[in-house]
Amino acid sequence: MPTYKHILVPVDESPISYAAVENALALANELQATVTVMSVIAVDPFIGVDFYKVAPAVTDYFMKAEEAARLRLKEIEDLFIRDNIPVNTKIIHGVSPADGIISIADEVSADLIIMGSHGRTGFKKMMLGSVAQTVLTQSPIPVLIIKM
Q1: What is the distance between the alpha carbons of residues 49 and 47, in angstroms, rounded to a whole number?
Q2: Which of 2, 76, 90, 99 is found 20 to 30 A from 10 (Cα to Cα)?
Q3: Is the confidence at residue 128, as pLDDT, over 50?
Q4: Is 99 inside any structural domain?
């Protein structure tokens, strides 16, 4: 069985992210692995539209998203610290969630990604896309998908 030394756990505000965190806690404790917990502040769909970039409401939205991500990561970081598991946190901006996850995995030399999936199928998956599916198919390292 492979021994994982560095686990990446991408999170958002969903309950499934916290299920992935719980699994990462258990596995990291068992394997004495380091963990990086990360969030992606999603790509701006109106990038390049001048009026959108300067709108105070948009700036406020991204500032609030950043603050929410920081608070979420701090809360999760404290769980790992409580269990004496080495942990780092990262926030990435300006990329799609899947690209951000794969990029950070490479940056921190992760050898396993543990992430949640909503388990959408059929038409919903086609319309909404699936971050987990994209990471699973594009990642050069193993990906453990936690489903609810």
Answers
A1: 6
A2: 2
A3: no
A4: yes
